[in-house]
């Protein structure tokens, strides 16, 4: 992927930096982000939308990987930003992300979050439910402000990566259902609120999706809904946000499309379906997360112990695991890896890569072909840029790794490795529990 290659020493090199040098400089486990590849993905989205001739915003879904450097990079590339919590919003604002390009999501925004986002003058709230609609109107009125909103609707298309369930999606915690009329009701109510400016609707059908059909189905449903809303309520949508979910290649056999192909399929569908009903084609917003950062991330681990069970399996343990990458344990996600210090050697054995947490489910990769693995080898797991650091934990009080951006032969720490002090910084021991002498 991206700038990764095997160099003359037979080492994996990313962004022009030898992985063994990264280990020496920054230690392991280490999240390495190929900055050039992230920038290329941002540009592919922007260029493809520009080519469509439609009005658009590409909002990076920060949940995939939200740190200040990433927010700053997304801002620099002209993207907008999707945040889902006060923490993501705070990170973005601290990074200087232009507030008017921030969109606030979430199915249970608190009063504090709403006030914080209003005070920051963010660009848009994606309103999820009736409680939020009333709360936002009340707070906006209180502050004498006009607020842009989209309403999140469930279009009745749900992608389970490879399949689409196109019956109702009524059973979802998110959004207003189009199928049962709730979305109509919400539009009618929203359009009457004096402090809310209804820009349009938002729909998100799933994540890690390879085909375009689901997006096309969603566009069609939303277009039909837009037409019905216009007819019955005389309300027109200026914006349609189609969410994220564009798939990436984690392992051989994954068959994602190019970014430009996803964008073209969507923008063509928008032109067709909206033109068909004689509707002014709305601005199209999307929210890619995984497809911006996923393939750009590599996690470097040092191999420690191994356990060979003859005739059964060989376990090889690394110095990280489910604390830095919970996805295999949570979703049975598959990853590929190479020995970064011997990337030119042929595979000689099949091993299963275990983490160091105290539970059997802490496995990163089952049945991986590698050269003869030794303690001290450097294992590079590919495609860890999305939903790894952002979902990392301190389980077993393991410190979170550092994150390094590499580009043009240089590595810069964008998140420093946690310290022991970080681990206990919020701990307090009440007076009644006698503190033991250290
Ligand atoms: N917009 C909305 C409203 C979303 O809910 C999501 C993801 C996105 C955009 C970005 O989707 P992406 O382009 O990254 O697929 N933790 C899971 C993924 C959860 C995705 C949740 N929503 C994982 O590790 O696979």
UniProtKB/TrEMBL annotation:
Residues 38-293 form the Orn/DAP/Arg decarboxylase 2 N-terminal domain. The modification N6-(pyridoxal phosphate)lysine is found at residue 63. Substrate binds at residues 290, 327, 331, 359, 387. Its cofactor is pyridoxal 5'-phosphate. The active site is at 358 (proton donor). Pyridoxal 5'-phosphate binds at residues 245, 287-290, 387. Keywords: Amino-acid biosynthesis, Decarboxylase, Lyase, Lysine biosynthesis, Pyridoxal phosphate. It catalyses: meso-2,6-diaminopimelate + H(+) = L-lysine + CO2. Its EC number is 4.1.1.20. Gene3D superfamilies: Alanine racemase, Lyase, Ornithine Decarboxylase, Chain A, domain 1. It holds the Pfam family Orn_Arg_deC_N. Pathway: Amino-acid biosynthesis; L-lysine biosynthesis via DAP pathway; L-lysine from DL-2,6-diaminopimelate: step 1/1. Specifically catalyzes the decarboxylation of meso-diaminopimelate (meso-DAP) to L-lysine. PANTHER family: DIAMINOPIMELATE DECARBOXYLASE (PTHR43727), GROUP IV DECARBOXYLASE (PTHR43727:SF2). This is Diaminopimelate decarboxylase. The gene is lysA.
């Amino acid at each position: 992927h991206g700038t990764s290659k095997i160099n003359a020493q037979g080492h994996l090199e990313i962004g022009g930096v030898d992985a063994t040098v990264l280990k020496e400089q920054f230690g392991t486990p280490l999240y390495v982000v190929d900055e050039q590849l992230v920038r290329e993905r941002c540009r592919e989205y922007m260029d493809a939308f520009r080519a469509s001739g439609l009005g658009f915003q590409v909002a990076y879904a920060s949940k995939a990987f939200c740190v200040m450097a990433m927010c700053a990079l997304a801002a620099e590339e002209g993207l907008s930003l999707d945040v889902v919590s006060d923490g993501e919003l705070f990170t973005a604002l601290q990074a200087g992300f232009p507030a008017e390009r921030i969109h606030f999501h979430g199915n249970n925004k608190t009063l504090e979050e709403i006030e914080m986002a209003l005070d920051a003058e963010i660009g848009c709230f994606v309103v999820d439910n009736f409680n939020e609609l009333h709360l936002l109107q009340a707070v906006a009125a209180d502050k004498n402000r006009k607020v842009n909103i989209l309403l999140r609707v469930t279009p009745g298309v749900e992608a389970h990566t490879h399949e689409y369930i196109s019956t109702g999606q009524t059973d979802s915690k998110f959004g207003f259902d189009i199928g049962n009329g709730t979305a109509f009701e919400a539009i009618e109510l929203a359009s009457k609120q004096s402090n809310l400016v209804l820009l349009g609707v938002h729909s998100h059908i799933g994540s890690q999706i390879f085909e375009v059909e689901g997006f096309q189905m969603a566009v069609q449903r939303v277009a039909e809904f837009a037409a019905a809303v216009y007819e019955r309520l005389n309300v027109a949508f200026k914006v349609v946000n189609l969410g994220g979910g564009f798939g990436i290649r984690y392992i051989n056999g994954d068959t994602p499309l190019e970014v430009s192909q996803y964008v073209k399929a969507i923008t063509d569908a928008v032109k067709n379906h909206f033109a068909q009903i004689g509707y002014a084609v709305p601005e199209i917003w999307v929210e890619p997360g995984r497809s911006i950062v996923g393939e750009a991330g590599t996690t470097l681990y040092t191999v420690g112990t191994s356990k060979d069970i003859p005739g059964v399996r060989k376990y090889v343990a690394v110095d990280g695991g489910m604390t830095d990458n919970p996805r295999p344990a949570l979703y049975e996600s598959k990853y590929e890896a190479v020995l970064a210090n011997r990337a030119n050697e042929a595979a000689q054995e099949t091993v299963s890569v275990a983490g160091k947490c105290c539970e059997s489910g802490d496995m990163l990769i089952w049945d991986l072909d590698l050269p003869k693995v030794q303690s001290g080898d450097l294992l590079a797991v590919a495609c860890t840029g999305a939903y790894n650091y952002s979902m990392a934990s301190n389980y077993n009080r393991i410190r979170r790794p550092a994150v390094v951006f590499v580009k043009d032969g240089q590595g810069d720490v964008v998140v420093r490795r946690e310290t022991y002090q970080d681990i206990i910084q919020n701990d307090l021991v009440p007076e009644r529990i006698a503190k033991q002498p250290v």
